[in-house]
Amino acid sequence: MPAISLPVTTALANALATEPGRPLVTYYDTTSGERIELSVKTFDNWVSKIANLLGDDLGLEAGQGIRVELPPHWQSTVTVVAAWAAGLRLVAQDASSPEDVSVVGPAALHTADTRPAGVVIACSLRPLAGAFVDPLPAGWLDFAREVPGQPDLLLLHQPTSGRDVALEQANGTVTHAELARMGLSAAERLGLRAGGRLITDANPADPTGLVNTLVAPLVTGSSVVLVVGADASTRTRITEQEQADCVLWLDG
Hints:
- By secondary structure, the chain is α/β, with parallel strands linked by helices.
- The protein has 7 helices and 12 strands.
């Protein structure tokens, strides 16, 4: 296994320089019929937009914490990498440390009154990154209204080294270099190689899903197909259609 000491964001920068048109994330919601494909370039554009909101508009600084409370979704993938691009550390759901900003889905509206104070960015998860129809709780930001208008290029570059903390969990922290090595190990277990395609229902916002579905494809130059709400026959059809050569189903 090759040694890696660089942050995962470097892998994205390398892919952008060499294969900007290559598919990186493909997302299927079989309930709504939505299919979204993000090339390396499009993925990087979203990362820059979100990172600009976090660092430039909200003034978050390197080392501050972000909690991403989203289900399996393409917005989960870009938000996680954007957090790292802004120099933030990802705070896992089981971590006791408070976060400085949360990114939530529509399910969080049911517990809005009991949430601790802090910056909240809400994603409707509607097709085409649509905005919420009804007003959000006071102070909450709508992803669809705040992110798309941001510049496609990163305004505030936060230098990140492999020694910086990428992820905080209940059992400790993981540096960017450690996370990249975990991604390589996961790719080796899955048989995921450069140019390959992993199909899965794992959540990129969960620490385990993060390594398998996001870090592993980034550090190996491969891609991921995220599928939600699919039965066995639909999974088989999408696997063949997307020419996925690695499979990781957690539900069923």
